[in-house]
Design brief:
Length: about 325
């Protein structure tokens, strides 16, 4: 049986014990009799079993990487995480690395079910894309026993590397851009509580408004289900909007058009964008492009460094995007 095929559960089946017992025996932990430990080690040698750590050392140029992503993050209308995932897979292929993606459903996460890529014991490292509940992260950290990299979020109390976007600082930048163009009545639109990137953007917007001594009005922060019902926009409407994504900007644009409002003559719009997004609409908004390709690339190479044992200190990488000014913002001239 080849070394890529032999797993702890195969040894457990031959020995008539649990996988946990095999793991303890091979790792030298207590709780296993010496006679059983000897039998398990002999079976492991006989079957050609090779621990993941040894396999990593021997096959530095042919890693197998598992990518875990929550199901709700792969929305067709909000492609940010789906596009990062594609770039991770592409970068792995470019580096001649095997990548296996596993979608984690809500019930699987709530029950802390162990993903298949961990149960199979044939992954050299894991990339966690999106965000997971703390109990699920703790389970993954305990069960995986391979290097982890968090992509798109930064959990508390973790020693693993994190690759995140510059959503907070970028939101400060584009909100300040509107403020410098004379706008003081600025709204924010995005699904704040649904993904980390939206929350970062919202907090950046709040910081910029606060630094200019302007209130963040509750009715001007539109999120969640309210995105589908933009009639809640008050009559004393904002003069400008910060939109958390391409899809949100498209939704807002359609809503304003139905009201007979034009951009930028009546309303100014800036948005966060994702390279490769296609809406089929003609609007060309001032945009801050998040660099999802670089995020995916950095995550793969951070994991490679971990799997190669090149460093042990936790690294946090903030990937910057770039600002593109278009004709979607008018300047408001204040009277002197």
């Amino acid at each position: 049986m080849g070394d890529q095929q032999v797993r702890m559960k195969d040894i457990a089946a031959r020995a008539g014990v649990s996988t946990v017992t095999v793991s303890k025996a091979l790792a030298g932990y207590s709780g296993v009799s010496e006679s059983m430990r000897s039998r398990i080690k002999e079976l492991a040698r006989e079957m050609g079993y090779e621990p993941v750590g040894e396999r990593r050392k021997r096959k530095r140029d042919s890693f197998s990487v598992g990518v875990l992503v929550p199901e709700e993050y792969l929305s067709q209308t909000e492609p940010f995480y789906a596009m990062i995932l594609q770039h991770v897979v592409d970068e792995c292929a470019r580096c001649k690395c095997n990548a296996t993606t596993e979608i984690i459903g809500l019930q699987m996460e709530k029950k802390c079910s162990v993903p298949m890529v961990i149960r199979e014991e044939n992954m050299d490292g894991l990339i966690l894309l999106g965000s997971f509940d703390r109990p699920y992260l703790e389970m993954l950290s305990h069960k995986s026993r391979v290097p982890l990299v968090y992509l798109g979020f930064m959990p508390d109390n973790s020693n693993a590397d994190c690759i995140i976007s510059d959503g907070f600082y970028a939101a400060c930048q584009i909100t300040n851009y509107l403020l410098n163009r004379g706008h003081t009545q600025i709204a924010f639109i995005g699904r704040i509580l649904e993904t980390p990137i939206y929350m970062e953007q919202y907090l950046g917007y709040v910081r910029a408004m606060t630094e200019h001594g302007l209130p963040v009005r509750k009715e001007w922060v539109i999120t969640g289900q309210d995105l589908e019902n933009l009639e809640i926009i008050p009559e004393d409407a904002p003069t400008a909007y910060v939109c958390g994504s391409d899809a949100v900007a498209d939704l807002l644009s359609r809503h304003l058009a139905r009201k007979g409002l034009r951009c930028p003559e009546d309303v100014s719009i800036v948005k966060f964008g994702t390279a490769g997004y296609v809406s089929g609409r003609e609007e060309d908004f001032t945009v801050y492009k998040l660099d999802v390709k670089e995020m995916g690339k950095k995550a793969v190479h951070a994991l490679f460094s971990r799997m190669n044992g090149e460093y042990t200190k936790k690294h946090i990488s903030i990937v910057t995007g770039h600002f593109q000014e278009k004709e979607s913002v008018r300047t408001i001239h204040t009277e002197t």
